[in-house]
Structure formats: structure tokens, C-alpha cells
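Usage

Read records sequentially. Each one opens with the input sequence:
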Amino acid sequence: MAAGCGGIDATRALKGHEALKGIPVIYFSANNDVQALATEAGADGYLSKPFDIQELEDIIHKHLSV
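and closes with the structure output:
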């Protein structure tokens, strides 16, 4: 992966690597299109900023317990 690549490219590279694809990727962004970006990248989840600490804990537990 090239230095300075964006989040979408980095997520795709991670998810495309056999040994690393099981690592959960959760997008956190104030971007209005965070859901679309996460979907495009193949991320496992997303949170829109600002978010509640309970939302953060919930999504982390969800993806670590899978």
C-alpha cells in the first residue's frame, strides 16, 4: 500500500489481504456520507460524529464479539 493512500483504499487493502481481512474496520466521521463511504470501502461499521460514548462502546463490542 502506498504512503498517503486514503481510508477507502486502506480499508480495501486490509480487507483484500487474506491474513488481515478479519480485522474489524469502523469508520468515524463527521462527513454526511460516512455510511456510503464505509459501504464503498467494505468497512464493517461506522459512527457519525458527534457520537455518544455508549454508541462507541456498543459498536466495538458488536464487532469484537463476532
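Summary fields computed downstream for this record:
- The chain has a mean pLDDT of 91.
- The first strand starts at residue 26 and ends at 29.
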